[in-house]
Amino acid sequence: MQIFITGASGFVGKATTKSLAKNHKVMAMARSEQSAQVVSEAGAHPVKCALGSVKAQDLQDCEVVIHCAAFVEEWGSEEQFWQANVVGTQQLLDVAKQAGVKRFIHISTEAVLFHGQHLRNIDENYPYPQKTPILYSRTKAAAEKAVVMANDAHFTTICLRPRLIWGPGDKTIVPAIRDMVATGKFKWIGGGHYQTSTVYIDNLVHAITLALTKGTGGEKYFITDNEDQDMRQFLTQMLQTQGVNLPKKSVPRFVARSAARIIEFLWRILAIKKQPPITRHAAYVMSIAL
After folding, report:
1. How many CB atoms lie within 10 A of CB 269?
2. Crossing angle of the two packed helices 135-150 and 88-99, in degrees rounded to 10
3. Angle between the 201-211 and 11-20 helix axes, to the nearest 10 degrees?
4. Do 74 and 177 meet the contact criterion of CB atoms below 8 Å apart?
5. Coil, strand, or helix at residue 251?
């Protein structure tokens, strides 16, 4: 099978590329020489292109597209989130159909349903929020809806919703928390003892591999380790593997959430590009069951 992967130099994309390249011919988006080298080392053939400007010939002879790329930064403008997560996904869907691709696997997220509430005991029928202050959630939801709508008799689309991906190669959770601890900015919110779902990177890659041939077109699937974790215990143990001991300091949930709203408002009004000390997304995720 010939497969095209976006985001192959990232955490999920790279792990997926390494695994699939053992049994398939893998082509991978490469926006720079650096990313081209990374995807080559992972076993894929780099294709010079970028989200929003993929050409039909870039996908020539590919049967499946696995879309891992997204704007996942904690802070950014609405334009940055929208162009990468929504416009980039829609353009890739359109060109994939044009190129005759048969299956499109979209790496989505549980965050498409999140606006600050708990997500305990929900399934894939849980409704999208009418509105959310979190740009990542809003734009990933719009992208997921586009993927679902693109499904038809000749073009199968599958959305996978992993939650809190962890494991070797993580470029988000561990590095971010390690930096916060090093600069004295890390604090638990409300004690940190909230139940959360997680998914180990190898389990997610296994789900992606299954989606190459299985799954119902136009459907969304949560991908987790099938067990709940205490967030504080999980993060503490994970950071200990990196020689980092998390501090015990904690702030009340209402204080953290209120502070995040005020800080974001000021950052937007003053057009400050530097990431704020806390965002609503971080404050919400760290203070509720997910």
Report:
1. 8
2. 20
3. 60
4. no
5. strand
- Could you tell me the pLDDT band of residue 290, with boundaries at 50, 70 and 90? confident
Residue 250's DSSP bridge partners are 188
Taken in order 11, 84, 142, 289, is the CA torsion positive or negative?
Answer: positive
pLDDT of residue 171 exceeding 90, the answer is no
Are 85 and 109 within one domain?
A: yes
Report the Cα–Cα distance between both ends of the chain, in Å, rounded: 36
Which residue range(s) make up the domain with 136?
A: 2-171+198-223
Same domain, 6 and 94: yes
Say yes or no to pLDDT of 90 above 90.
yes
* Helix (H) and strand (E) counts in the chain: 10, 13
The residue whose two tokens read 């209120």 is 258
Question: What percent of the residues of the chain are helix, what percent strand, and what percent coil, each to the nearest 5?
Answer: 40, 15, 40
In a shared domain, residues 187 and 274: yes
Mean pLDDT for the chain overall: 95
What tokens does 266 get? 């000021």
**By three-state DSSP, how is residue 264 classified?**
helix
Both tokens of 179, joined, read: 């930096």
Under a CB-based contact definition with an 8 Å cutoff, are residues 52 and 87 in contact? Answer: yes
Contact 87, 263 (CB under 8 A): no
Amino acid, res. 133: P
Please indicate, yes or no, whether residues 24 and 156 belong to a single structural domain of this protein.
yes
Q: Looking at residue 205, which CATH number applies to its domain?
A: 3.40.50.720
Query: DSSP for 22-48?
Result: TTSEEEEEESSHHHHHHHHHTT-EEEE
Residues that are catalytic:
136
Q: In this predicted structure, which of 91-95, 123-127, 168-172, 204-208 has the lowest mean pLDDT?
A: 168-172
